[in-house]
């Protein structure tokens, strides 16, 4: 499965709207993780055809991240350590984008030259892989 990540202002009915739009176009959501930080909802969905889902969402006014980006959630002060860790393992960071943050944590999209290796290295930080804080 591949992921599609949406960044949107958090609001009531957001997931219902996304589900309706994708369902109407015969795109099934196989997995879902939502995090709200700094008033923004960051929604990561696993789908069989991410290109189709991405195209449909964009046509309907939603902002999506680059489908090749790795989306992680870390403390705002950890990104320098994350990029250093990747570079030590010969993974080049080609792009870094802050999707949303509050005073403590941020959600970031990282583009790298070796996505498989980086995904494995960053697995504890992947959006949806954190243990619940309760």
Structural notes for this entry:
The protein has 134 residues and is of the alpha+beta class. It folds into two domains: 2-64, 2-Layer Sandwich (VC0802-like); 70-125, VC0802-like (2-Layer Sandwich), CATH 3.30.2130.10. 28% of the residues lie in helices and 36% in strands. It has four helices and seven strands; from the N terminus they run E-H-E-E-H-E-E-H-E-E-H. It has helices at residues 14-24, 50-59, 79-88, 115-121; strands at residues 2-9, 31-37, 40-47, 63-64, 70-75, 93-101, 105-112. The strands form two sheets. The protein has a four-stranded antiparallel β-sheet. The protein has a three-stranded antiparallel β-sheet with strand order 5-7-6, with helices on one face. The radius of gyration is 15 Å and the shape is globular. The model has no long low-confidence stretch (mean pLDDT 91).
State the distance separating the first and last CA atoms.
29 Å
CATH architecture field of the largest domain: 2-Layer Sandwich
- The chain-level structural class is alpha+beta
Proportion of residues in extended strands: 35-45%
Q: What does the average pLDDT come to?
A: 91
* The CATH homologous superfamily of the largest domain: VC0802-like
Query: Class of the largest domain in CATH?
Result: Alpha Beta
Strand arrangement in the largest pleated sheet: 2-3-1-4
H/E element sequence: EHEEHEEHEEH
Number of strands: 7
The count of helical stretches stands at 4
- Please summarize the sheet with the most strands: 4 strands, antiparallel
Q: Estimate percent helicity.
A: 25-40%
Could you name the CATH topology of the largest domain?
Answer: VC0802-like
- Give the domain tally: 2
Radius of gyration: 15 Å
